[in-house]
Each structure stands twice: as C-alpha cells, then as structure tokens.
Amino acid sequence: MKTSISLKPTIFVIFGGTGDLNMRKLAPALYNLYSDGYMPQKYAIIGTARKKLTDQKFRDVLMEGVNSFSRTGKVKKEKWSKFAESVHYTSVDVSAPETFKSLKDDIEKYQQEFGPGTQVVYYLAVAPSLFPLIAKCLSDYKLAGDEESCRIVIEKPFGRDLETAKELNQLLTSIFTEKQIYRIDHYLGKETVQNIMAFRFANSLLEPLWNRTYIDHVQISVTEQLGVGDRGGYYESAGALRDMIQNHILQLLCLIGMETPINFDADEIRNKKVDVLKAMRPFSPDDIRFSTVRGQYTKGWVEGKEVPGYRHENGVNPDSNTETFAAIKFFVDNWRWQGIPFYVRTGKRLFQTSSLITIQFKDVPHQIFPAAVTEHWQQNRLIISIQPEMSIRLQVQAKRPGLDMVLNPVDMVFDYKGTYTTETPEAYETLLLDVMTGDQTQFMRADQVESAWELLMPVVNAWESKKSLSFPNYTADSWGPEDAEALIARDGFHWFTLPLNKD
Ligand code: BG6
C-alpha cells in the first residue's frame, strides 16, 4: 500500500517494446506516472524487441502510442522531452540468446550510473510462448537478481489449464522467488475494484449483513459490446472461460466472498482470497449441465452497423467451438456463504459494456404493508458498478411523497463523478507503481492461479470435449443466449442491469 512515494532508482526493461500492450497501456501509464510525479528520481526505460531501432525512433513510436491511448490525451511537449530522455532501445532476439549480452551491458551501465539499491523490473509484454525462453535467458545471463533488486512482471494467460499453469509456475520459481514474480490481472488495478476492500472493511455497518443470513444471492456481470476484433487468433485458443472467468471474474468473486484480513499485508490478503477459491464447490457432471451456459455470437447490428458473427472474424475457424459468452452458477461452501448462489456472466458483442456486482439482500421477514402499497416492491440491493459508470448504489424502499402511502425503490448513490474532482488513474498506472514499490497485494500468487484453474478444469474439459451443437446461439447486440436467462430465472431471479448512461 502506498502512502508516500520515495522510489528506488529503477531500470524498467520491456520485452515486446514495440508491441500493442506497450503502446496502448504501458507507455501511457509510465508517462502519466512521470507527469504526476510518481516515477523515481533516477530511472531508465529500456524497450526491447527483435527490430533494430534507434533510441529516437523508439521514443517516436512510444509517443504515438501515448498520444493515441493515454487518458490524459496528447503529450505535453516539454514533459515528454524530459520523460523521453530516459527511454532507450536495445534490440534483443529471444531466439538468439547471445543478444541478451547487449541488454546485460545496458543494465550494468545504468546500475553503475544510478548507484547502490537500483532495482530492475522485467516486463514480459510478449506472447506467453516466449515467457519460458526469456526467463531462461535472464537466468543464463545472471540477470535474475534477488528479491531486493529484481522483479519480473507477466501478463495473463498464466497457462491455458491447470497443468500448463503449474509448469509455468515451476519454471518461473526455479529462476525467481515468488516475491519477485508479479502476475498482472489488470482488473485488480481498477479504482472501483480496489475500493471493494475499502468499502467492505472500512465500514462497520456492512459486516453484520455480509452473509447467508441476509444475502439472497450475488451477481457478477462483465459484459462487453465489442467483438473479438483483431484478436481472433488468440481468442480461438482462449474463449470467455479462460479469458475472463478464470482470472478477472473469480478475482472479483474473491473480493466479495473473502473473510476479513487481519491486516493489509499482501500475503494476508491473498491468503484470504485463496481461501474463497478453495471453498468453492467443485463441479459435478450434473452441475456442468445445469449450472453452466456457453454461447457464441452470430452477426447482428451494433449502433447502426452490421457486425460479423464470431465464426467470420479474422483468425477464427469457420466451424469454431470457442465460447464468446459464459454464465456459471457457483457456490462457496463455507459458513458465511453456504447455499448462496454466485451467478457470473461475461461475453462479447452483448447489448451493453458494463461491469456490475449486485448483492441482493433477502426480503423483509414479514410484510406489514398492504398489497396496494407495495406494487413496486423490490428487495434491497447493493450495486457496485465498476465501469463505465463508477458508483455504488444501495437500493432501498421509500415512501413516495404524497397523501397516499405508496412505496417505491430509490437509490442511495455514491458516484465517483459527483464526489471527486481528481482524475482516476488507469489500472496500469496503479499496478506499475505497485511493481516499483514492491507491493504484491494486487497481483496473482501462484496458488491463486492454480486454485482458479483447478476449480474450472471440469468445465474447460467438458466444453472442449463436447462441441456445442447450438453455436452460434446469440445475436450480436443481445444479452446472450436464452439459456443464460433460464439459468438464473430457474432460481426466481433475473440478471440485473443499470440503465444506459448516455452522457
Ligand atoms: C482482457 C481480455 O483481459 O480484458 C479481453 O483479454 C477483455 O478480452 C478485457 O476485453 C476487458 O478489460 P476491460 O478493462 O476493458 O474491462
């Protein structure tokens, strides 16, 4: 946790320096950290890739990325020039390990210049197939350092099943210690997601209600309007289950389900999250049949434009069995949550882009109001809207003003826009700063990754081994397959959405 900033000199090595992730996320985040005064006094950013580029050319490429994707808009000339003085480029070809020699020379040069205590961060913004190669080269060239001086950051997917995740973890931990490894799940860096811990554990009024006695069910719905776009190749081997549920959504579920940590220590918090994953009910074949739904989009119209079905997207097999939608009912078998369903759904090309967590409370134990007064009755709900609206709403009943007693639901709203004037940092700004300060709270530990895979493997295997005969089964711009409505309707509930906010 950061309260004040005094950062050690840092050498930031980005593998995949000319790639999409660096352009869209890392470079804008590093530049914004610099602009807001959150970069160390002494730092160097070394981009690496196979291409041969001069420092100047690399800086120009990065500037284009920042100009196109930064939340703060185009760079300010003077700020950028100062920031870019510390940006460098070294060509490294992972298939020719000897090229690591020049990277080693660069790192040593900055280590000498910056003096004792300099830390090195390796960011692997490359395809997962390159993780093992790069990690091995860092080891062979004695660049892996120790817990104090060196960290490695990797992006999901962390394996594509339990076995490959274990292999990756074993390889990484044979070279680095767990304290050096930062597995990024960018959802954990989102401001509204970080606020879940604050909301739950900094307010005494919630805890007494936060259990099976008062909560009816929980929904986590992460829907996207976009299709797979140009990521068809990657998505074919992932699908919604691996791409969103194994990581982002299960992490959200852990934040809602976890017990109170005894302090804000990274491992204590991660222990409490792993406990949730370990308590989750394993899937039997019947559960897979009745508690999971998969979908794939077909063509449709989005905002007046016709969009292709998934099977016609670039890089996608015309006969693909990959799911672009998944809905699952989970249970957490412990004292707090026994019998309380957690419904999750996610998908591409859905009607609305929105990430919502809804906690529906149980109904009043006894109704004192006559039926005529309660026509609009609704159980209390707490709605945490992660994006695009950033808010927390508590829906309660109130008396409508007037001479008659009529009840209707109203929202008590904490809305970021109306409450704060400060700008919200991007998830990557938060997470990169955490890497530099050495705070692993918002990063996935090996056992979290493996527990999430372990839970989902029966579903992964069932969906892979049995082709869906109904695919494609939902139209672009809809709320997904009908079966997903049935999944929750069977229990007497419906998926909750917020009205579209047009401003
Ligand atoms: C990524 C997934 O991890 O998260 C993408 O690979 C998905 O498929 C994205 O679109 C969603 O992130 P966000 O921050 O836009 O909700």
UniProtKB/TrEMBL annotation:
Active-site residues (renumbered): 248
EC number(s) stated in the UniProt entry for this protein: 1.1.1.49
Stretches of the chain forming a coiled coil according to its record: none
Superkingdom: Bacteria
Annotated GO biological process: glucose metabolic process; pentose-phosphate shunt, oxidative branch
Keyword NADP: yes
UniProt cross-references to Gene3D superfamilies, sorted A to Z: Dihydrodipicolinate Reductase, domain 2 (3.30.360.10), NAD(P)-binding Rossmann-like Domain (3.40.50.720)
UniProt domain Glucose-6-phosphate dehydrogenase NAD-binding: residue ranges: 13-195
The keyword Oxidoreductase belongs to this UniProt entry's keyword annotation: yes
Residues noted as binding NADP(+) in the record, renumbered to the chain: 50, 93-94, 156
Domain Glucose-6-phosphate dehydrogenase C-terminal stretches: 197-495
Catalytic activities: D-glucose 6-phosphate + NADP(+) = 6-phospho-D-glucono-1,5-lactone + NADPH + H(+)
Entry function: Catalyzes the oxidation of glucose 6-phosphate to 6-phosphogluconolactone.
Protein name, as recorded: Glucose-6-phosphate 1-dehydrogenase
Source organism of this protein record: Pedobacter nutrimenti
GN (gene name): zwf
